[in-house]
Amino acid sequence: MELAGAVILLLVLCISFLFLISAWKAMGNRGNLPPGPTPLPIVGNILQVKTGDMVNSLMKLSKTYGPVFTVYLGSRRVVVLCGYEAVKEALVDQGEAFSGRGELPTFNKVTQDFGVVFSNGERWKQLRQFSLKALRNLGMGKKSLEEHIQEEAQCLVEELRKTNELPFDPTFILCHGVCKVMCSILFGNQLNGEDKEFLGLVSMIDENFQLMSSFWGQLYDIFPNIAKHLPGPHNRIFACFEKLAEFIAKRVVLNQETLDPNNPRDFVDYFLIRMEQEKQNPLCEINIKDLVITALSVFFGGTETISTTLRYGLLILLKHPDIEGKMHEEIDHVIGQNRSPAMEDRSKMPYTDAVVHELQRFSNLLPLNICHSVIRDTHFRGYTIPKGTNVFPMLTSVLRDPTQFSKPDSFNPGHFLDENGGIKKNDAFMPFSAGKRICLGEGLARMQLFLYLTTILQNFTLKCHLDPKDIDLTPKASGFGNIPHSYQLSIVPH
């Protein structure tokens, strides 16, 4: 019996060894893939792509292998694109081929390939077309939505006044204000912004974004089959997403009970009406699961990206009080103190507009972009990328491309100003990505960033107890997102 057990153990070890060698050879057999470091069995390029420092690791590899290279995150093959020219060529010039959504395990466990952000194929095409139309019907880019954001901006001002010039962390206040706008679009004005459940969701959104960008979030994205069995804070990510999904599912039920097909109130209503219209159409891919996951994606993505950009923006202005001063001068000259800022003011405020652009470029909120994939075997720059291969079109490499921005690592509004002080367009400005998967809410985000920031500076001057030279603008975490260091500021009535 002992001999038989030993023989079985030896056979298992031999088979495992042969499997590892076979897997290693398969990973090393690149065919006509872009170049890259040789992966190890199972762990891939873990020695070159460090968990907790993925962004910098990939940028360092681009210096060795060029703007297009291949890495293995565990057993997952990923082609990385660096620099404006390579990213534009893929997402714009070959946009259809690169239009697939790749893997993002921290999301995929919850989304399961449903919803407008994480689906593929015909489902994605139908969802994107419908979602864009619904958001436009709800006022994206129109005066009606602008007026609502103006109202919420004034509510934010009142909350800021309550700080009585004492130091405070702006994270929750900013997230709360943006979250109320997102909720009104998705669920109408039926939600109490001071409800305990809602306030808990606000905190949860920020917590999840930070967890996904942390060491543990990156560990799960590289080794999901291993990390899912490990204890650690990454498990909190899924608990938070599930609570957000439960909240949205409850809102959907409430909308179903009070739905008037002739008078849609919000995004959920438009979705429910479309589902009813298409219920006899076997080619329609849209269903209730898509509704919940689409609303979750828009709710989470819209709230966190805008509020974190604002939070990063205030920190940057604390670092550069001279820039804040010039913005105050322009706001006082164009808007004054007797009315709310409006989007029509932006064309008369090139310096402030340039600062908002530069805040987005410099904060570089989603440095890796959201993972793409190629939907067919794709020829790209002399290489062949097999169908289904994941692709990282690195937004950080575009927003800080030295061939496109004169001082890529410095905060400089001059990147978006011409020699006459007017606003200057730059095609490498891609904070919302580019091509067929460009952010659905780009127009909404631009509107909120301009109106919130100008309204805050119309009413307050920013103060910090630190010397500006001691303010650290490097992110405390750089993974799925770039997270600014926690800080406190005081605001003084302007």
TrEMBL record:
Heme binds at C439. This is Cytochrome P450 2G1-like. Its main location: endoplasmic reticulum. It comes from the Eukaryota. It is found in: Endoplasmic reticulum membrane; Microsome membrane. GO terms for molecular function: arachidonate epoxygenase activity; heme binding; iron ion binding; oxidoreductase activity, acting on paired donors, with incorporation or reduction of molecular oxygen, reduced flavin or flavoprotein as one donor, and incorporation of one atom of oxygen. It holds the Pfam family p450. The keyword Endoplasmic reticulum applies. The keyword Transferase does not apply. Keywords: Endoplasmic reticulum, Heme, Iron, Membrane, Metal-binding, Microsome, Monooxygenase, Oxidoreductase. One of its GO terms (biological process) is xenobiotic metabolic process. Its cofactor is heme. Belongs to the cytochrome P450 family. GO terms for cellular component: endoplasmic reticulum membrane. It comes from Geotrypetes seraphini. The gene is LOC117365671.
